Amino acid sequence: VHLYGSPEEMGEQYGSLLKPRLQLVAACVNLFMPADKKEKAARFAEALEKNLPEEARTELKAIARASGVPYATLVAANVTPNILCTTLAVWDKATKDGRLIFGRNSDYPAFGLEKVIGVIVVYHPDRGTPLISVSYLGMIGSSTGINSKGVAFGNMLSLNARHPRTNPDGLPIQLQLRRVAHRAQSAEEFARQLLGLKHLIPMNVMVADDKGAVAVELGVDAGETRTSRNGVLAASNYFLCPRLASYPSECSRYLSLIRSAKEHFGAYDVEA
Question: Could you read off the pLDDT of 146-167 as tens digits, one per residue?
Answer without folding.
Answer: 999 999 999 999 999 998 889 9
